[in-house]
Design a protein that fits this description.
By secondary structure, the chain is α+β, with helices and mostly antiparallel strands. Helix content is 26%, strand content 24%. It is built from 11 helices and 16 strands. The strands form 4 sheets. Strands 11, 12, 13, 14, 15 and 16 form a 6-stranded antiparallel β-sheet that branches. It has a 4-stranded antiparallel β-sheet with strand order 3-10-5-8. The protein starts with a helix and ends with a strand. The model has no long low-confidence stretch (mean pLDDT 80).
């Protein structure tokens, strides 16, 4: 009687109802549900019963198992909640993180949401665009002539430098899933960043990216697994330097001041038992001499000499830049403890 009373008073107005059927009195016979109103049966799914045991005229359906049968419920989101969500998204982006509430609000007012289907091209290499894009959902592939070079995800941005400085895009950006983007006009972006050091940082990052820094990082197994955000942070302190055969990048007994990312050429530690030279993608430095790994002042005298044996160039990262990077990303420091290079 209690079970019948509960069933009779069940709130059938819910969006999705899962009802367990089976042999009475423990379970409800499926046939009992056939007399429910059609509006209720539209949202009703029965479980613990085989589909073949349901007669078509009953109007009942089984809740099938597996990810492909996931029941997706959509609801209307309050406009104010969408605004708060977008504001939080903006504040989570590196180049916008230093903006105050007022400037973030200015940027928010100019934002447009845009949906891109899987495999659709968002931006083509060589094109000019006056928009910067922020990924709110999905994944975007960065493609150059030699193929995909980077995967972008939520909170990654692209096109900011091209939009502000009116430059052509150096890569193609393609949606590899359905993607939701937030689009900002370059004019508005430049205005809200006008008094920020971000503009200078963006110019530096764009410069090293144009000079093959992205590709050199992609050849490093450590950097290849990092997010685009972390790579851009590291790039913001780098600069390019050319080396001739026989040049010393640094010498033993000097103070530890730099680390280098090899882009072209070949380099070796002088008078060492090195198996093979450092080539494209190698990130080299006496990291324990550059960074305080053990809450004590690191010894700064180098024990190695790094020499160029084939002409090329590196992206140099000063000691201060590496230290600031680890302050922002302390977890990354673990990969550099007791290392003199990472390939």
């Amino acid at each position: 009687k209690e079970r019948r009373k509960q069933l009779m008073n069940f709130p059938w107005d819910h969006d999705v109802i899962l009802h367990e059927c089976g042999v009475p009195p423990i379970h409800t016979p499926a046939e009992t549900l056939k007399n429910l109103d059609a509006k209720i049966k539209k949202n009703l799914y029965v479980v613990h019963v085989a589909e073949k045991s349901l007669k078509p005229e009953w109007g009942l359906k089984v809740a099938n198992v597996g990810p492909t049968n996931t029941i997706i419920m959509t609801s209307k989101v309050d406009a104010s909640l969408k605004t708060i969500e977008l504001l939080e998204l903006i504040q989570g982006v590196e180049i916008f993180s230093s903006l105050g509430l007022q400037k973030s609000s200015e940027l928010l007012q100019s934002a447009k949401r845009r949906t891109v289907s899987k495999d659709q091209c968002i931006v083509t290499e060589g094109d000019t665009s006056n928009s910067c894009f922020l990924i709110a959902m999905g994944f975007v592939s960065v493609v150059e002539d030699r193929g995909p070079v980077k995967l972008l995800m939520v909170c990654d941005t692209f096109g900011e430098f091209e939009a502000i400085f009116e430059k052509p895009h150096t890569a193609t950006f393609r949606a590899i899933t359905d993607v939701e983007l937030v689009e900002f006009p370059g004019s508005t972006l430049g205005w809200v960043l006008r008094d920020s050091p971000t503009l200078e940082m963006m110019a530096k990052v764009s410069k090293v990216q144009e000079e093959d820094c992205w590709q050199a990082m992609q050849a490093n197994t450590c950097f290849d697994s990092w997010s685009a955000l972390k790579l851009r942070q590291l790039q913001s302190w780098m600069y390019k330097k050319v080396y001739k055969e026989g040049d010393d990048v640094w010498e033993a007994k000097q103070r530890a001041e730099i680390s280098v990312l090899v882009a072209h050429g070949r380099f070796v530690y002088d008078n060492s038992d090195q198996i093979h030279p450092f080539e494209r993608g190698a990130f080299i430095g006496e990291f324990p001499k550059l960074v305080d790994f053990a809450d004590e002042e690191p010894k700064t005298d180098l024990t190695t000499t790094l020499r160029c044996i084939e002409p090329g160039y590196c992206f140099v990262l000063p000691k201060e830049g590496l230290q600031k990077f680890f302050e922002i990303n302390p977890g990354a420091m673990l990969q550099f403890i007791n290392r003199n290079f990472i390939e």
